[in-house]
């Protein structure tokens, strides 16, 4: 963000923080779980801290930890991480029209701070593409709130793993806290179909290697949602044509 912010930018930044705040406890729980898992894996303390700061991708971090512990080839670790993070390619494509006017390095930084919930909440705002005053500041409000919550909780998990019992159920608590956010995003039939398809496929393909269930569920959800949108558009077009034909 620029060094000096306008009042509009400051207001948009605060709005981003406020809109993201209901998810902070869920993100904190997941960060704590990830930090504990890294601490109890084959990683040293410096390695765990470095992974938390550089990767900032809880799902892929958790996915590769068993592979690192088993000392599997590096290519299997990289492939698994790539498969889990395939969804971010889709998120990037969705954000590209909004920030295409920025420099490449600035867009790369924005991409680092992007996340599932951030993308979801940003799209719910229905911003126009291209430059919109306050839009980037709104994104940064969510991004910084998310990053700080994640890093603080992850580092706490790394440093205090031995003091946190495994039976606290933090992963389940984080998942349950995110459910209301996902439900609130279902605002159309196509979204409902996409969520349903993704959920079913993720369960059916859960045992696939390299965490292929996640990218498969994402791709098929997009296909299903787009298919429903196309059917709805065609149905609306037929109704318009029929109405035009019935009119005197």
Task: Please specify the SSE layout and strand pairing.
Elements: H1 7-20, H2 24-39, H3 45-55, H4 58-69, H5 74-84, H6 87-99, H7 104-113, H8 116-124, H9 135-159, H10 170-184, H11 189-204, H12 213-246
Helix pairs in contact: 1-9, 2-4, 2-9, 2-10, 3-9, 4-5, 11-12
Model description:
This protein has 248 residues and is an all-alpha fold. The chain folds into two domains: 7-183, no CATH class; 186-248. 75% of the residues lie in helices and 0% in strands. It has twelve helices and no strands.
Concise account of the structure shown:
This protein has 248 residues and is mainly α.
Topology order in helix (H) and strand (E) letters: HHHHHHHHHHHH
Count of spatially separate domains? 2
Question: Span between N and C termini?
Answer: 58 Å
Question: Which geometry do the CA atoms define?
Answer: globular
Describe the largest sheet. Answer: none
Oligomer designation: single chain
- On the 0 to 100 scale, the average pLDDT is 79
Helical percent range?
over 70%
The total count of helices amounts to 12
Report the strand count: 0
Q: Radius of gyration over alpha carbons?
A: 21 Å
Alpha-beta classification: mainly alpha
Uncertain runs are none
Q: How big a fraction of the residues is strand?
A: under 5%
Characteristic key phrases:
248 residues, 75% helix, globular
């Amino acid at each position: 963000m620029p060094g000096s912010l306008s009042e509009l930018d400051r207001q948009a930044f605060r709005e981003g923080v406020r809109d993201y705040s209901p998810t902070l406890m869920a993100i904190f729980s997941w960060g704590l779980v990830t930090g504990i898992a890294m601490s109890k894996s084959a990683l040293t303390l410096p390695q765990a801290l470095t992974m938390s700061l550089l990767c900032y991708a809880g799902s892929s971090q958790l996915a590769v930890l068993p592979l690192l512990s088993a000392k599997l080839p590096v290519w299997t670790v990289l492939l698994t991480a790539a498969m889990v993070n395939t969804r971010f390619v889709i998120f990037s494509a969705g954000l590209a029209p909004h920030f295409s006017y920025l420099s490449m390095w600035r867009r790369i930084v924005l991409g680092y701070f992007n996340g599932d919930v951030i993308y979801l909440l940003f799209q719910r705002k229905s911003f126009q593409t291209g430059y919109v005053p306050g839009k980037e500041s709104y994104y940064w409000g969510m991004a910084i709130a998310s990053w700080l919550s994640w890093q603080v909780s992850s580092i706490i998990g790394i440093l205090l793993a031995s003091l946190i019992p495994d039976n606290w159920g933090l992963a389940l608590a984080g998942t349950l806290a995110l459910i209301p956010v996902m439900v609130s995003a279902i605002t159309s039939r196509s979204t409902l179909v996409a969520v349903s398809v993704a959920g079913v496929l993720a369960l059916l393909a859960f045992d696939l290697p390299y965490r292929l269930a996640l990218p498969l569920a994402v791709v098929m959800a997009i296909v299903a949602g787009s298919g429903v949108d196309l059917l709805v558009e065609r149905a609306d077009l037929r109704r318009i044509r029929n109405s035009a034909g019935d009119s005197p």
